[in-house]
């Protein structure tokens, strides 16, 4: 059976960095509800990361995420100076030296990904979605989160790709292959939107139009969240949905604002932020000692 | 930092906004809150500030309801207790 929702897990190592020359090796682990990222940074530069699905057990997922990020680098867990955990499962990770909320980490990660001009960050995660405002240092100045429902999140998109039998990576492109932009599905609740979509399919509405209707409903949902917080330029999106053009383009249209292009995969922003916090904490420790 | 805790659902928007830049860390709001919706925490930037507790975050519409009479003057204990006026309810 093809699992259409199953996005590709992968790892990455910077080709031009040798960790042996690094003064500070810091690590951030973002254990989200859907995905886990292990991020390793050397002196504040991105060195290696992994991006995989979270299992049912967060300490386990964190360990696997970190091990995979380390794979093939020769680097060992004991070489790492500080580990910061973040995300949904952050409080339950024994190897982490500290836990920091994903709001602070995403702001800091976005500052790294998009540069210091970023003022508004939208994190579209697996199970919740957060609107964050930050200053030029990546410090949070305001935030708003919606963790009560999974509307406008990655999990919703997974459920949808499964229903429509479309690979999740293709949803963005297909959502533009329509004759005219359909009205958004009226409900963004994952369960209700799914039944609405099933009804549309039964009526013979083309698949791509159903996808478009869902993407625009999702974009509208997060737009109202951003509107409440207020949007200031520059604007960046982090989290898995940032890779879904179908949602991002529609959101940009509604906002009348383009989102910045990230330096790396924006899904790892939370982990990057955590690794940067870890680096600062090492510096603080060393200054104190 | 303007911290917004709460949610939006089919019945409306329910957010408690805490402006931590105005906060003086006195803790009066947490003491004044009968259901302990508001608690004092140390946030990511090492500031001692109030926050809506995890336990109540997803149901403040109901948990804050006893302090919100349908008619008559409304004086929310948390808002009244806060001398620097750092707490606002959206509903």
Task: Outline the structure in words.
The complex is a heterodimer of chains A (289) and B (91). Chain A is an alpha/beta fold and 289 residues long. Chain A has two domains: 10-108 and 267-288, ATPase, nucleotide binding domain (Nucleotidyltransferase, domain 5, 2-Layer Sandwich); 117-259, ATPase, nucleotide binding domain (Nucleotidyltransferase, domain 5). Chain A has eight helices and ten strands. In chain A, a hairpin with a 3-residue loop joins strand 2 and strand 3. In chain A, helix 3 (154-164) runs parallel beside helix 5, helix 5 (190-202) packs antiparallel against helix 6 and helix 6 crosses helix 7. The model of chain A has no long low-confidence stretch (mean pLDDT 92). By secondary structure, chain B is α+β, with helices and mostly antiparallel strands. In chain B, 15% of the residues lie in helices and 32% in strands. Chain B has helices at residues 28-32, 60-63, 77-81, and strands at residues 2-9, 12-19, 38-42, 48-52, 87-89. A three-stranded antiparallel β-sheet of chain B has the order 1-2-5, with no helix packed on it. In chain B, a hairpin with a 2-residue loop joins strand 1 and strand 2. The radius of gyration of chain B is 13 Å and the shape is globular. The A-B interface holds A 100-101, 103-104, 133, 139-149, 224-225, 228-229, 277 and B 1-5, 7-9, 13, 15, 43-45, 57-58.
If you compute it from the alpha carbons, what radius of gyration of chain B comes out, rounded to the nearest whole angstrom?
A: 13 Å
Shape field of chain A? globular
Number of domains of chain B: 1
Contiguous runs where pLDDT drops below 50 for at least 5 residues of chain B: none
Look at the structure and give the mean pLDDT of chain B.
92
Largest sheet of chain A: 6 strands, mixed
Could you say which structural class the secondary elements and strand pairing of chain B correspond to? alpha+beta
Number of helices of chain A: 8
What is the succession of H and E elements of chain B?
A: EEHEEHHE
Proper CATH architecture of the largest domain in chain A: 2-Layer Sandwich
């Amino acid at each position: 059976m093809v699992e259409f929702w199953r996005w590709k897990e992968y790892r990455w190592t910077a080709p031009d960095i040798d960790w042996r020359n690094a003064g500070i090796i810091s690590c951030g682990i973002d254990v989200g509800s859907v995905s886990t990222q292990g991020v390793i940074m050397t002196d504040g530069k991105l060195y290696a990361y992994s991006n995989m699905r979270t299992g049912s057990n967060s300490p386990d997922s964190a360990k696997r995420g970190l091990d995979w990020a380390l794979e093939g680098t020769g680097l060992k867990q004991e070489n790492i100076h500080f580990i910061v955990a973040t995300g949904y499962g952050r409080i339950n990770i024994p190897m982490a030296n500290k836990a920091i909320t994903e709001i602070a980490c995403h702001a800091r990660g976005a500052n790294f990904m998009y540069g210091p001009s970023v003022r508004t960050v939208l994190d579209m995660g697996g199970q919740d979605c957060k609107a964050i405002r930050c200053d030029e240092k990546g410090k949070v100045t305001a935030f708003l989160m919606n963790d009560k429902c999974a509307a406008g999140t990655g999990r919703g998109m997974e459920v949808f790709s499964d229903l429509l039998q479309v690979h999740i990576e293709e949803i963005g492109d297909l959502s533009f292959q329509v004759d005219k932009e359909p009205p958004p599905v009226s409900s963004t609740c994952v369960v209700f939107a799914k039944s609405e979509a099933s009804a549309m399919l039964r009526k013979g509405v083309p698949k791509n139009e159903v996808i478009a209707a869902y993407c625009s409903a999702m974009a509208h949902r997060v737009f109202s969240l951003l509107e409440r917080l207020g949007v200031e330029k520059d604007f960046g999106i982090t989290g898995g949905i940032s890779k879904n053009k179908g949602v991002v383009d529609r959101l940009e249209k509604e906002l009348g604002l383009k989102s910045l292009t990230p330096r790396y995969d924006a899904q790892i922003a939370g982990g990057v932020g955590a690794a940067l916090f870890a680096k600062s904490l090492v510096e603080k420790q060393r200054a104190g000692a | 930092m303007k911290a917004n805790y709460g949610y939006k659902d089919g019945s409306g928007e329910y957010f408690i906004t805490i402006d931590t830049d105005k906060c003086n860390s006195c803790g009066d709001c947490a003491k004044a809150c009968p259901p302990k919706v508001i608690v004092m925490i140390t946030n990511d930037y090492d500031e001692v500030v109030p926050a809506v507790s995890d336990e109540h975050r997803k149901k403040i519409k109901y948990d804050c309801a006893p302090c919100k009479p349908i008619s008559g003057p409304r004086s929310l204990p948390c808002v009244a207790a806060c001398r620097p006026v750092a707490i606002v309810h959206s509903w």
